[in-house]
Design a protein that fits this description.
Blueprint lengths: L9 H30 L2 H7 L12 H6 L4 H32 L6 H13 L4 H10 L17 H12 L3 H9 L4 H12 L1 H17 L2 H6 L8 H10 L6 H4 L8 H36 L2
Membrane topology: Multi-pass membrane protein
Family: Belongs to the binding-protein-dependent transport system permease family.
Subcellular location: Cell membrane
Protein backbone atom coordinates (compact mmCIF):
# COMPACT_ATOMS: atom_id res chain seq x y z
CA UNK A 1 0.00 0.00 0.00
CA UNK A 2 1.36 3.43 -1.04
CA UNK A 3 -0.13 6.51 0.69
CA UNK A 4 -3.29 4.59 1.49
CA UNK A 5 -3.69 3.31 -2.10
CA UNK A 6 -3.39 -0.48 -2.49
CA UNK A 7 -0.76 -1.71 -4.90
CA UNK A 8 -2.06 -3.49 -8.00
CA UNK A 9 -1.75 -7.24 -7.76
CA UNK A 10 0.48 -9.37 -9.96
CA UNK A 11 -2.46 -10.70 -11.96
CA UNK A 12 -3.69 -7.17 -12.62
CA UNK A 13 -0.24 -6.12 -13.84
CA UNK A 14 -0.06 -9.12 -16.16
CA UNK A 15 -3.50 -8.37 -17.60
CA UNK A 16 -2.56 -4.73 -18.18
CA UNK A 17 0.67 -5.75 -19.88
CA UNK A 18 -1.12 -8.18 -22.18
CA UNK A 19 -3.83 -5.68 -23.11
CA UNK A 20 -1.31 -2.91 -23.81
CA UNK A 21 0.87 -5.28 -25.85
CA UNK A 22 -2.09 -6.32 -27.99
CA UNK A 23 -3.16 -2.70 -28.46
CA UNK A 24 0.36 -1.65 -29.51
CA UNK A 25 0.60 -4.60 -31.89
CA UNK A 26 -2.72 -3.68 -33.52
CA UNK A 27 -1.42 -0.15 -34.10
CA UNK A 28 2.14 -0.98 -35.17
CA UNK A 29 1.65 -4.09 -37.33
CA UNK A 30 -0.29 -2.32 -40.14
CA UNK A 31 2.49 0.27 -40.46
CA UNK A 32 5.12 -2.48 -40.48
CA UNK A 33 3.14 -4.31 -43.16
CA UNK A 34 2.87 -1.19 -45.33
CA UNK A 35 6.60 -0.44 -45.10
CA UNK A 36 7.56 -4.10 -45.60
CA UNK A 37 5.33 -4.49 -48.66
CA UNK A 38 6.75 -1.33 -50.23
CA UNK A 39 10.29 -2.69 -49.79
CA UNK A 40 9.69 -6.38 -50.57
CA UNK A 41 10.87 -7.93 -53.86
CA UNK A 42 8.23 -8.28 -56.58
CA UNK A 43 8.34 -12.09 -56.49
CA UNK A 44 7.57 -12.20 -52.78
CA UNK A 45 4.69 -9.72 -53.13
CA UNK A 46 3.16 -11.73 -55.97
CA UNK A 47 3.57 -14.98 -54.05
CA UNK A 48 2.10 -13.54 -50.83
CA UNK A 49 -0.93 -12.17 -52.65
CA UNK A 50 -0.10 -8.53 -52.09
CA UNK A 51 0.76 -8.07 -48.38
CA UNK A 52 4.14 -8.84 -46.82
CA UNK A 53 5.00 -8.58 -43.14
CA UNK A 54 8.65 -9.68 -43.26
CA UNK A 55 10.41 -8.88 -46.56
CA UNK A 56 13.03 -11.32 -47.81
CA UNK A 57 15.12 -8.45 -49.10
CA UNK A 58 15.14 -4.72 -49.79
CA UNK A 59 13.91 -3.59 -53.20
CA UNK A 60 13.61 0.16 -53.80
CA UNK A 61 12.19 -0.16 -57.31
CA UNK A 62 8.76 1.10 -56.21
CA UNK A 63 10.22 4.28 -54.72
CA UNK A 64 12.47 4.83 -57.73
CA UNK A 65 9.53 4.43 -60.12
CA UNK A 66 7.24 6.93 -58.35
CA UNK A 67 9.96 9.56 -57.81
CA UNK A 68 11.05 9.86 -61.44
CA UNK A 69 8.99 12.92 -62.31
CA UNK A 70 5.54 11.46 -62.92
CA UNK A 71 2.15 11.96 -61.28
CA UNK A 72 3.28 11.14 -57.75
CA UNK A 73 6.35 13.40 -57.85
CA UNK A 74 4.30 16.32 -59.14
CA UNK A 75 1.61 15.71 -56.51
CA UNK A 76 4.27 15.51 -53.78
CA UNK A 77 5.70 18.90 -54.77
CA UNK A 78 2.20 20.41 -54.92
CA UNK A 79 1.33 19.10 -51.46
CA UNK A 80 4.61 20.40 -50.04
CA UNK A 81 4.03 23.84 -51.55
CA UNK A 82 0.39 24.02 -50.45
CA UNK A 83 1.33 22.91 -46.93
CA UNK A 84 4.15 25.45 -46.62
CA UNK A 85 2.22 28.41 -48.03
CA UNK A 86 -1.04 27.47 -46.31
CA UNK A 87 0.56 26.96 -42.90
CA UNK A 88 2.40 30.29 -43.01
CA UNK A 89 -0.75 32.11 -44.17
CA UNK A 90 -2.95 30.40 -41.58
CA UNK A 91 -0.53 31.04 -38.72
CA UNK A 92 -0.24 34.71 -39.70
CA UNK A 93 -4.00 35.25 -39.90
CA UNK A 94 -4.72 33.22 -36.75
CA UNK A 95 -2.08 35.01 -34.67
CA UNK A 96 -3.24 38.45 -35.82
CA UNK A 97 -6.93 37.66 -35.29
CA UNK A 98 -6.26 36.04 -31.91
CA UNK A 99 -4.27 39.10 -30.81
CA UNK A 100 -6.98 41.50 -32.00
CA UNK A 101 -9.69 39.54 -30.18
CA UNK A 102 -7.63 39.52 -26.99
CA UNK A 103 -7.36 43.34 -26.88
CA UNK A 104 -10.36 45.02 -25.30
CA UNK A 105 -9.72 48.26 -27.15
CA UNK A 106 -10.18 46.59 -30.56
CA UNK A 107 -13.15 48.08 -32.42
CA UNK A 108 -15.96 45.53 -32.69
CA UNK A 109 -14.17 43.08 -30.41
CA UNK A 110 -17.30 41.48 -28.99
CA UNK A 111 -19.11 41.27 -32.33
CA UNK A 112 -16.11 39.72 -34.07
CA UNK A 113 -15.59 37.23 -31.24
CA UNK A 114 -19.28 36.27 -31.43
CA UNK A 115 -18.92 35.73 -35.18
CA UNK A 116 -15.93 33.42 -34.62
CA UNK A 117 -17.83 31.45 -31.96
CA UNK A 118 -20.90 31.11 -34.20
CA UNK A 119 -18.73 29.68 -36.98
CA UNK A 120 -17.80 26.85 -34.60
CA UNK A 121 -21.46 25.81 -34.42
CA UNK A 122 -22.67 26.31 -37.99
CA UNK A 123 -21.06 24.89 -41.12
CA UNK A 124 -21.78 26.78 -44.38
CA UNK A 125 -22.24 23.54 -46.34
CA UNK A 126 -20.68 22.22 -49.52
CA UNK A 127 -22.82 24.02 -52.09
CA UNK A 128 -22.51 27.56 -50.60
CA UNK A 129 -18.77 27.03 -50.15
CA UNK A 130 -18.43 25.89 -53.76
CA UNK A 131 -20.38 28.90 -55.02
CA UNK A 132 -18.17 31.28 -53.02
CA UNK A 133 -14.99 29.69 -54.39
CA UNK A 134 -16.47 29.85 -57.89
CA UNK A 135 -17.42 33.53 -57.56
CA UNK A 136 -13.92 34.34 -56.32
CA UNK A 137 -12.48 32.73 -59.46
CA UNK A 138 -10.43 30.16 -57.55
CA UNK A 139 -11.72 26.99 -59.24
CA UNK A 140 -8.87 24.93 -60.71
CA UNK A 141 -6.28 26.93 -58.79
CA UNK A 142 -4.30 25.87 -55.76
CA UNK A 143 -5.75 28.80 -53.83
CA UNK A 144 -9.02 26.86 -53.73
CA UNK A 145 -7.48 24.39 -51.28
CA UNK A 146 -5.69 27.06 -49.22
CA UNK A 147 -8.00 30.04 -48.75
CA UNK A 148 -11.26 28.30 -47.65
CA UNK A 149 -9.48 26.58 -44.75
CA UNK A 150 -6.92 29.29 -43.96
CA UNK A 151 -8.48 30.20 -40.59
CA UNK A 152 -9.83 27.74 -38.04
CA UNK A 153 -12.18 29.21 -35.43
CA UNK A 154 -11.00 26.65 -32.87
CA UNK A 155 -7.36 27.62 -33.36
CA UNK A 156 -8.25 31.31 -33.14
CA UNK A 157 -9.97 30.73 -29.79
CA UNK A 158 -6.93 28.81 -28.48
CA UNK A 159 -4.50 31.55 -29.55
CA UNK A 160 -6.78 34.29 -28.18
CA UNK A 161 -6.99 32.50 -24.83
CA UNK A 162 -3.19 32.44 -24.67
CA UNK A 163 -2.86 36.16 -25.44
CA UNK A 164 -5.54 37.01 -22.86
CA UNK A 165 -3.47 35.19 -20.24
CA UNK A 166 -0.31 37.22 -20.83
CA UNK A 167 0.72 39.36 -17.81
CA UNK A 168 -0.84 42.80 -18.20
CA UNK A 169 2.02 44.36 -16.25
CA UNK A 170 4.49 43.38 -18.96
CA UNK A 171 2.30 44.97 -21.63
CA UNK A 172 1.87 48.15 -19.59
CA UNK A 173 5.62 48.48 -19.04
CA UNK A 174 6.21 48.10 -22.79
CA UNK A 175 3.62 50.79 -23.50
CA UNK A 176 5.35 53.14 -21.05
CA UNK A 177 8.55 52.62 -23.04
CA UNK A 178 6.69 53.78 -26.16
CA UNK A 179 5.70 50.47 -27.78
CA UNK A 180 2.61 50.63 -29.96
CA UNK A 181 0.18 47.80 -30.67
CA UNK A 182 2.22 46.37 -33.55
CA UNK A 183 5.42 46.35 -31.50
CA UNK A 184 3.60 44.69 -28.61
CA UNK A 185 2.33 42.02 -30.98
CA UNK A 186 5.65 41.48 -32.76
CA UNK A 187 8.14 41.76 -29.91
CA UNK A 188 6.04 40.58 -26.95
CA UNK A 189 3.09 38.51 -28.09
CA UNK A 190 4.66 36.35 -30.80
CA UNK A 191 7.83 35.34 -28.90
CA UNK A 192 5.81 34.38 -25.82
CA UNK A 193 3.26 32.52 -27.95
CA UNK A 194 5.84 30.22 -29.53
CA UNK A 195 4.55 27.01 -27.87
CA UNK A 196 0.90 27.54 -28.77
CA UNK A 197 1.78 28.71 -32.29
CA UNK A 198 3.91 25.59 -32.79
CA UNK A 199 0.94 23.39 -31.89
CA UNK A 200 -1.50 25.39 -34.02
CA UNK A 201 1.00 25.30 -36.88
CA UNK A 202 1.16 21.51 -36.57
CA UNK A 203 -2.64 21.34 -36.74
CA UNK A 204 -2.69 23.51 -39.85
CA UNK A 205 0.20 21.68 -41.49
CA UNK A 206 -1.32 18.24 -40.97
CA UNK A 207 -4.66 19.55 -42.21
CA UNK A 208 -3.18 20.94 -45.44
CA UNK A 209 -1.03 17.86 -46.01
CA UNK A 210 -3.92 15.43 -45.55
CA UNK A 211 -6.58 17.51 -47.35
CA UNK A 212 -8.15 15.84 -50.35
CA UNK A 213 -11.88 16.65 -50.17
CA UNK A 214 -11.53 20.31 -51.17
CA UNK A 215 -9.14 19.29 -53.92
CA UNK A 216 -11.68 16.77 -55.17
CA UNK A 217 -14.39 19.47 -55.19
CA UNK A 218 -12.49 22.39 -56.67
CA UNK A 219 -9.77 20.87 -58.87
CA UNK A 220 -10.87 19.19 -62.08
CA UNK A 221 -7.39 19.45 -63.60
CA UNK A 222 -5.46 16.34 -62.53
CA UNK A 223 -2.18 18.23 -63.02
CA UNK A 224 -3.03 20.22 -59.87
CA UNK A 225 -3.94 17.27 -57.69
CA UNK A 226 -2.13 17.09 -54.33
CA UNK A 227 -0.62 13.87 -53.03
CA UNK A 228 -3.62 12.84 -50.93
CA UNK A 229 -5.99 13.00 -53.91
CA UNK A 230 -3.55 10.95 -55.96
CA UNK A 231 -3.35 8.56 -53.01
CA UNK A 232 -7.14 8.25 -52.96
CA UNK A 233 -7.32 7.71 -56.70
CA UNK A 234 -4.61 5.08 -57.03
CA UNK A 235 -4.89 3.37 -53.62
CA UNK A 236 -8.47 3.64 -52.38
CA UNK A 237 -10.17 3.55 -55.78
CA UNK A 238 -7.71 0.95 -57.07
CA UNK A 239 -6.88 2.78 -60.31
CA UNK A 240 -3.87 1.20 -62.02
CA UNK A 241 -0.67 3.20 -62.29
CA UNK A 242 1.12 2.77 -65.59
CA UNK A 243 4.64 3.66 -66.71
CA UNK A 244 3.28 6.79 -68.44
CA UNK A 245 1.68 8.01 -65.18
CA UNK A 246 4.90 7.51 -63.24
CA UNK A 247 7.23 8.79 -65.93
CA UNK A 248 9.29 5.63 -65.46
CA UNK A 249 11.10 3.77 -68.20
CA UNK A 250 11.89 0.76 -66.01
CA UNK A 251 9.69 -2.27 -65.57
CA UNK A 252 7.16 -1.53 -62.85
CA UNK A 253 6.83 -3.53 -59.63
CA UNK A 254 3.41 -4.90 -58.59
CA UNK A 255 0.65 -2.32 -58.12
CA UNK A 256 0.37 -3.20 -54.43
CA UNK A 257 4.03 -2.34 -53.89
CA UNK A 258 3.60 1.02 -55.64
CA UNK A 259 0.49 1.81 -53.59
CA UNK A 260 2.24 1.00 -50.32
CA UNK A 261 5.22 3.15 -51.36
CA UNK A 262 2.87 6.09 -51.99
CA UNK A 263 1.39 5.55 -48.54
CA UNK A 264 4.82 5.59 -46.92
CA UNK A 265 5.79 8.80 -48.74
CA UNK A 266 2.57 10.47 -47.60
CA UNK A 267 3.26 9.54 -43.95
CA UNK A 268 6.98 10.37 -43.72
CA UNK A 269 6.76 14.22 -43.58
CA UNK A 270 4.41 14.16 -40.58
CA UNK A 271 6.62 11.61 -38.81
CA UNK A 272 9.63 13.88 -39.38
CA UNK A 273 7.99 17.12 -38.21
CA UNK A 274 6.03 15.82 -35.21
CA UNK A 275 9.00 14.92 -32.94
CA UNK A 276 10.36 18.48 -33.19
CA UNK A 277 7.01 19.96 -32.10
CA UNK A 278 6.05 17.31 -29.56
CA UNK A 279 7.71 19.14 -26.66
CA UNK A 280 5.44 22.14 -27.34
CA UNK A 281 2.27 20.08 -27.73
CA UNK A 282 1.08 19.63 -24.14
CA UNK A 283 2.36 23.03 -22.99
CA UNK A 284 0.84 24.90 -25.91
CA UNK A 285 -2.58 23.28 -25.73
CA UNK A 286 -2.90 23.49 -21.96
CA UNK A 287 -1.73 27.09 -21.86
CA UNK A 288 -4.12 28.11 -24.60
CA UNK A 289 -7.05 26.13 -23.23
CA UNK A 290 -7.16 26.90 -19.51
CA UNK A 291 -6.67 30.66 -19.69
CA UNK A 292 -9.04 33.32 -20.97
Amino acid sequence: MIDGVPRPGRVENVVKTIVLTIACALVILPFVGIISTSLAPAEQVNTAGGFVLLPEGIDLTAYASILTGGVVTRALLISAGVTAVGTVLSLTLTAMLGWALSRRQTIGNRQLLLLVLVSLLFNPGIIPSYLVVQQLGMLDTLWAIIVPTSVSAFNVIVVRAFFVGLPQEVMDSARIDGAGEWKLFWYMGLPLARPVLAVVGLFYGVGYWNAFFNAMLYLSDSALWPLQLVLRTYVVDGTQLGAQDLGAEMSLPPQTTIQMAILVISIIPILIVYPFLQRHFAKGMLTGAVKG
